[in-house]
Amino acid sequence: MGRRQGLALLLLFTFGSQFKPSEPFLVDYLVQRKGLTNQQVYGSIFPIYVYARLPCTALVGVAAELPGCGNTIVLALGAAASLLTSLLTRFAASLVAQQASQVFIALAFSSRYALFAVVFKLTMPAEQQTTVHNVRVAELLSNCLSALLGELLRDGQVPLPTVFSFDVVSQALTLLFAGLLHVHGTASSNSPSAIPRSRSMERPALLEHWQQQQLQQQQQQQQQQQHARHCLQLAPTWRRGDDVREPGLSAAQANRRRSIHTLACRWLVLSKPTLTDMLFSFRIRSVAWWTVWALAMSTSHGIALTYWQALLREKNITRNHNGYLLATMYFLSAALTAVSGWWTFLRSNHSVLIIGSLLVAGGMLCMLALASTELTFYFWLLLFQCCFEVLTAVATFQVGRAVTEAFGGDREPCGSTSSFDQQLSAHEGTRTTGAGAWSGLPQGRARLTLVLSLTGILSGAAGIISQAVMGTWIHLLSGRFWAVGLGLQALAGVMLCVGIIELCFFSQTIRDARSRGDAGRTADGGSAEPATLRPSHAWNNAAA
Question: Helix, strand, or coil here: 213?
Answer without folding.
Answer: helix
